[in-house]
Specification:
The chain has 3 helices and no strands. The chain starts with a helix and ends in a 10-residue tail after the last helix.
Length: 137
C-alpha cells in the first residue's frame, strides 16, 4: 500500500467513526423523544380520565397517571443525559475529541437545568441563610 491509499483508508475510517457516533447520538435523541411522547400520552390520558368520567375508580386512575407521566419525563431526561455522558466519556477514554454541542433536542433541557440550579441556589440563599457557609473576610 502506498501513502495515498493509506491516507484514503484512514480518512474513510475516520468518516465511518464520525458517522457511527452521529447515528449513536441520534438514537439517544430518538429514545429521548419517545420518553417525551409516552409521558405526554400518560398525562393527557390522566387529565382526560379526571375531566370526562364520574367514576371514582377511573378518576383515581387519572390521578395516578399524572405523577407517572411526570416520573416518566424526568426518567427520560435523566437517562438521556446519563447516556450522553457515558458516550462522551468513552470517546475521551479512547482518545477521540468530543467537540460537538448538545443535540438540538436536548440543548433546551441543559439550559433549563442550569437555570433551575441558579433558581434553587438563590432560593437557598434567600430562605436559608444559615445553611450558607460563612464569608471569609
Amino acid at each position: 500500500m502506498d501513502k495515498s491509499d493509506e491516507q484514503r483508508l484512514k480518512h474513510e475510517l475516520l468518516l465511518r467513526d464520525y458517522l457511527a457516533s452521529e447515528r449513536t447520538m441520534m438514537s439517544v435523541d430518538r429514545t429521548f423523544l419517545s420518553y417525551i411522547r409516552t409521558s405526554l400520552t400518560l398525562f393527557i390520558a390522566g387529565v382526560s380520565f379526571i375531566k370526562f368520567f364520574n367514576s371514582f375508580v377511573i378518576q383515581a386512575l387519572g390521578w395516578t397517571l399524572i405523577p407517572v407521566a411526570i416520573f416518566t419525563f424526568i426518567l427520560g431526561v435523566h437517562r438521556s443525559m446519563e447516556m450522553t455522558r457515558i458516550i462522551n466519556g468513552r470517546a475521551k477514554e479512547n482518545g477521540y475529541q468530543v467537540d460537538s454541542a448538545p443535540s438540538l433536542v436536548r440543548e433546551p433541557f441543559y439550559t433549563f437545568e442550569i437555570f433551575l440550579r441558579g433558581v434553587l441556589r438563590g432560593f437557598y440563599r434567600f430562605f436559608l441563610p444559615s445553611a450558607q457557609p460563612p464569608d471569609k473576610n
